[in-house]
Amino acid sequence: GRGPRMIGLVDDGLGRITIPWRRVSRVTFNLHEATESDSMLQEADAFRPIEGVVEARDGRRLEGRIRWDNDHEFGWETLEAHIGDVALDVDFSAIRAVVRDTVGGVRLHLADGRVLEVDAAGDLGPGNSGLFVRESSRPTRLIRWSDVSRVEFWP
User: Fold this and answer.
1) How far apart, in whole angstroms, are the C-alpha atoms of residue 112 and residue 93?
2) CB atoms within 10 A of CB 75
3) Is the pTM of this model over 0.70?
4) In 10 A of CB 26, how many CB atoms?
5) For residues 13 and 111, is the Cβ–Cβ distance under 8 A?
6) How far apart are CA 56 and CA 63, in angstroms?
7) Closest to 140 in 3D by CA, of 149, 150, 130, 148
8) HEC string of 34-50?
9) Strands 15-20 and 6-11, how do they pair?
10) Centroid of chain to Cα 134
11) For residues 91 and 78, is the Cβ–Cβ distance under 8 A?
12) CA gap 125, 69 in Å, rounded
């Protein structure tokens, strides 16, 4: 086809990455043999609901089960993020925190220690429906994405 040529990669600690082929200058393949405990741990995290603490810019804090953008509730689901023209589908189970800065950027803190500076787009942009948090014994409450300053996910 005549559309943009892309290459897709899978990063065990992140998720799926899609990169325009024109940005690739070299590909090196390294084999990594996953252990049974690695895959069992990843599977267990993937099926758990997304839970944690949502902090708003005005100081509000909600703790509990999180529904992201009104459609993501489990660790196996992915957060759509971008770094320029590179698309990332990050498994929620791989994220430990999402931090918004005051100038519109977003940092993803991953479980493996990496920190990614990503664009305010996709699930991190203005089209986000907000974060719905269900605290124990309280009704579900909404914090609009524009009001969110930080989200810490419980492991």
Assistant:
1) 11
2) 22
3) yes
4) 4
5) yes
6) 12
7) 130
8) CCHHHHHHHHHHHCCEC
9) antiparallel
10) 19
11) yes
12) 10
Name beta bridge partners: 60: none
Partners of residue 9 on adjacent β-strands? 17
Is the Cβ–Cβ distance between 65 and 50 less than 8 Å? yes
| Half-sphere exposure (Cβ direction) of 132: Cα atoms closer than 13 Å | 11
Number of helices (H), then strands (E), belonging to the chain: the values are 1, 12
Q: Cβ(66)–Cβ(97) under 8 Å?
A: no
21 and 6 in contact (C-beta within 8 Å)?
yes
Indicate the residue type of 52: G
Element at 83 (helix H, strand E) = strand 78-83
Per-residue pLDDT tens, the chain, 155 aa: give them: 566 687 777 777 777 888 888 888 887 877 766 655 554 445 566 789 999 999 999 999 999 999 999 999 999 999 999 999 999 999 999 999 999 987 888 999 999 999 999 999 999 999 999 999 999 889 999 999 999 999 999 98
Q: Is-contact 79 90, C-beta < 8 A?
A: yes
